[in-house]
Q: What sequence folds into this?
């Protein structure tokens, strides 16, 4: 693996940007529908622990019961029904699986709804990926140069680089999740975000940061460790200094699929926390309190079992595996191409 230490330094900043950004542009266009389906499947898994205390208002529907404290107690599934009544184009809480979600979203909302959240995805994916890959290469090379080769270098470098990227793009991730959770006009989305900021401050835009970090940091650590190990084994057995495109594609896809499965429960929690931010009905008062990540995990397990913790498994795996495969193989190909262009590889 030592031959890879100098690879990142041979590239100019522009070449690094092109190599890391080209793949994410392609994957964003193709995997956004899977992301939409994953979010829809996860949003309907919120168990009845999400009972919310609401201020008094005359009930218009028999599903809402008035309590002595002038509030309403209802679970997320009932909230989904209220939202469905308000926006008849939505088909939330009605999906039996991945294929069923695809069919119903297209039928009720149109084909374009499968690309909901594409604009914030592109806005955040390109700079985040450039920053992420650049930081990872720099940290990995630093650790290899100073501490010697080992799997801990990709593990630590991947975790640290992802922590920075998650923090920077967290507000855009929140906007994308809310756009994908159900069909809504842009004015409603902006009003929802403004209300959340007014009520809870600017830090509310980082709602879901905790479970996102718990999902993405271990994902990145496991992903890069396994990928670098597979790459080192390939180079050792073939005597090559770089992997070819096909091997990078397969190794990256396999590593991404395994890491996606291991970290999926935190993705479920992140989705549910972000969807509920700023949601309010004319009859209902806003959510007063948000449960911690660990409490939500325990409650989901108690109510829905492993199925609740792994909601949206296939859309996530089908999204992450090809995304990692295309992004990493394109990145490796771009680096090798520019190194040859710069004379860094004979």
A:
């Amino acid at each position: 693996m030592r031959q890879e230490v100098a690879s990142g330094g041979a590239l100019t900043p522009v070449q690094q940007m092109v190599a890391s950004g080209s793949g994410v542009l392609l994957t964003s266009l193709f995997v956004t529908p899977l992301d939409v389906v994953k979010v829809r499947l996860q949003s309907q898994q919120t168990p009845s622990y999400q009972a919310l205390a609401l201020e008094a208002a005359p009930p218009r529907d028999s599903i809402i019961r008035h309590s002595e404290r002038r509030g309403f107690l209802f679970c997320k599934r009932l909230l989904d029904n209220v939202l469905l009544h308000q926006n008849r184009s939505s088909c939330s809480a009605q999906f039996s699986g991945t294929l069923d979600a695809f069919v119903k979203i297209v039928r009720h909302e149109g084909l374009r709804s499968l690309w909901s959240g594409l604009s914030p995805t592109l806005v955040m994916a390109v700079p985040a990926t450039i920053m992420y890959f650049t930081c990872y290469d720099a940290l990995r090379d630093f650790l290899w140069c100073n501490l010697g080769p080992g799997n801990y270098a990709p593990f630590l470098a991947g975790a640290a680089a992802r922590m920075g990227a998650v923090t920077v793009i967290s507000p855009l991730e929140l906007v994308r999740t809310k756009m994908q959770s159900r069909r809504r006009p842009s004015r409603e989305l902006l009003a929802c975000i403004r209300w959340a900021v007014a009520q809870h401050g600017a830090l509310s835009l980082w709602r879901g940061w905790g479970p996102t970090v718990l999902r993405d940091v271990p994902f990145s650590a496991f992903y890069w460790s396994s990928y670098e190990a597979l790459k080192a084994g390939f180079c050792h057995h073939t005597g090559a200094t770089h992997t070819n495109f096909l091997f990078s594609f397969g190794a990256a896809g396999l590593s991404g699929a395994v890491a996606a499965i291991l970290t999926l429960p935190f993705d479920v929690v992140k989705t549910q926390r972000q969807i509920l931010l700023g949601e309010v009905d004319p009859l209902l008062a806003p959510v007063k309190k948000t449960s911690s990540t660990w409490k939500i995990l325990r409650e989901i397990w108690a109510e829905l079992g492993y199925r609740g913790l792994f909601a949206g498994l296939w859309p996530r795996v089908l999204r992450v595996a090809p995304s990692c495969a295309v992004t990493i193989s394109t990145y490796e190909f771009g680096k090798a191409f520019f190194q040859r262009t710069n004379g860094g590889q004979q």
Remarks:
- The CA atoms of residues 265 and 310 lie 6 Å apart.
- The radius of gyration is 22 Å.
